[in-house]
Amino acid sequence: MSDRIVVDPITRIEGHLRIEAQMDGDKIASAYSSGTMVRGIEIILKGRDPRDAWAFAQRICGVCTLVHGIASVRSVEDALDYQIPANAQLIRNLMIGAQYIHDHVMHFYHLHALDWVDVVSALSADPAETSALAQSISNWPKASPGYFSDVKRKLKGFVDAGQLGIFAKAYWGHEVYKLPPAANLMAVAHYLEALEWQRDVVKLHAIFGGKNPHPNFLVGGVASAIDLNSDSAINSKKLSQVQNVINKMREFTDQVYVPDTLAVASFYKDWGERGEGLGNFLCYGDLPATSMDDPDSFFFPSGVILDRDISTIHPLDLNSAEEIQEHISHSWYDYSKGKDQGLHPYDGETSLNYTGPEPPYAHLNVEESYSWLKAPRWKGKAVEVGPLARVLMLYAKGHEQTQELVNMTLSKLDLPTRALFSTLGRTAARTLETKILADAMQGWYDQLIANIKAGDTKTFNEALWEPSSWPSQCKGVGFMEAPRGALGHWIVIEDGKIANYQAVVPSTWNAGPRDAGGQAGAYEAALQDNHQLLDAEKPVEILRTIHSFDPCIACAVHLSDEDGEEMLQLKVT
């Protein structure tokens, strides 16, 4: 029998993920993705006031600090047909855009780049050569030989003192690392710069939401009043700070993130042939110019692409019981009518039933249930969600900037269009999306300023705030495109309280296990596509493809006990 390689936990992600890869010689024949924590937020929300749901749902994750809050308030607004003011929509767009840009930059430099960048190799770099390289790809001011000498000295100090911290226990020196020392030193320098950069750009959430992480939200609008003459509201000074944040985002994206991605990718073109996976992509759509009731106004269009055919966009209906379903045939849950059927989220159930081995264990029984993640499907098909799905949708819909950026990237790297669907394409799509959104944020900001100058400062619609105005029964879906992909919160309200609540998150779409028909999830399918391991003891190749999705398993699996304390249902060592 061929060996099975286990990577547990997958590090540099949010949450706990286990990957088991069944090998055929040095190639991955089949892969299995297991979420090893369980989420119970849906249970906690039952019986609560729908207007408060966002505050609980937002704690599903600490990385995507606002996306569950947005999806939650939108679910209530959809159920009540509750319209929000134009300024509230613009502020939400700005907050969502800031989440994307902050999240994508952090992912590239601090979670994913170390799969491609050999940190220790940077110690042998010539700072003058690094400077020449940096200046050849960008006009970023921090690019002098002296600057890179200082970075090298700082890195050497960490190594000599045995204080590598998060750089420790990696696979440095592995043959699969291809960057020359100068490129490695440049990447390490930008890694450190990104830490400082992110401290400043998260201020946008604090300005509009009062704090970060987990800013405040409000059903019916946003919790930030506009009054240019008040120190406690959104005033001229705070709006100026928002403009400064947008400037910093655009500058770092244009001069550091995009050039670095292209530079690193040029040494790993072979990864344009690995990790394709499903070839099916789903996007709910988001960032409306008018309202969530007007999909034609969405910046990100909605739809489904099947079999890599970007000439045809299939429509989707999130309310249809025949389209979105969650399956549990290989998950540690029960459904009242049996494990072999799928349930639409309006009818969804969260009934925990762990039947796996007692830890610690060598392998999962993948013929049975093997994950705390469910398996979402669209019309019975497994799909991938995330930056690649959105970029493909924009490209297919004729978005001019997206087409220019994608074509430029393929041309610069001398790669065929097929490379878009790969591990490398997934990583590049995240970078290009960051550039697109950073530019779009300026437009939303300008529109907000124009509204204020015209005398429109309204950010909250009080019309349906009181439950006495609600129907006795209603339901709705709050959806958005989170940085990691399509996010939906489905709510059923009865007599002013939550009767059912189900969240189907991006990492459930991507990291979910097989369904009753044996269809692999996106992670599993991607690992089964042309993955050869050079050293089974150091499976960098597995990390590269899994990290290209930017996993957030805390979003997909989470539980609190009766006292509200987070707990682990399953601990794997």
Structural class: alpha+beta
Element order: H for helix, E for strand: EEEHHHHHHHHHEEEEEEEEHHHEEEHHHH
Overall geometric form: globular
Give me the side-by-side strand order of the main sheet.
Answer: 1-2-3
What is the terminal separation in angstroms? 25 Å
Strand content: 5-15%
What is the β-strand count? 14
**Given the structure, what is the number of helices?**
16
Question: Which helices and strands, and how do they pair?
Answer:
Elements: E1 4-7, E2 17-24, E3 27-35, H1 41-45, H2 53-57, H3 67-80, H4 86-112, H5 127-137, H6 145-160, H7 181-201, H8 203-209, H9 236-265, E4 281-283, E5 286-288, E6 298-300, E7 303-305, E8 324-327, E9 333-334, E10 351-352, E11 375-378, H10 387-396, H11 400-413, H12 423-453, E12 473-482, E13 485-494, E14 497-504, H13 506-511, H14 522-527, H15 540-547, H16 553-556
Antiparallel strand pairs: 1-2, 2-3, 4-7, 5-6, 8-11, 9-10, 12-13, 13-14
Helix pairs in contact: 4-7, 4-9, 4-12, 5-6, 5-7, 7-9, 9-12, 10-12, 11-12
What descriptors fit this protein?
573 residues; alpha+beta; 3-stranded antiparallel beta sheet; 14 strands; disordered C terminus
Summarize the structure.
The chain is of the alpha+beta class. It has 16 helices and 14 strands. 38% of the residues lie in helices and 13% in strands.
Describe the 3D structure.
With 573 residues, the protein is of the alpha+beta class. It is built from 16 helices and 14 strands. The strands form 6 sheets. A 3-stranded antiparallel β-sheet has the order 1-2-3. A 3-stranded antiparallel β-sheet has the order 12-13-14. The chain has a two-stranded antiparallel ribbon with strand order 4-7. α5 crosses α7. The chain is globular. The C terminus is likely disordered.
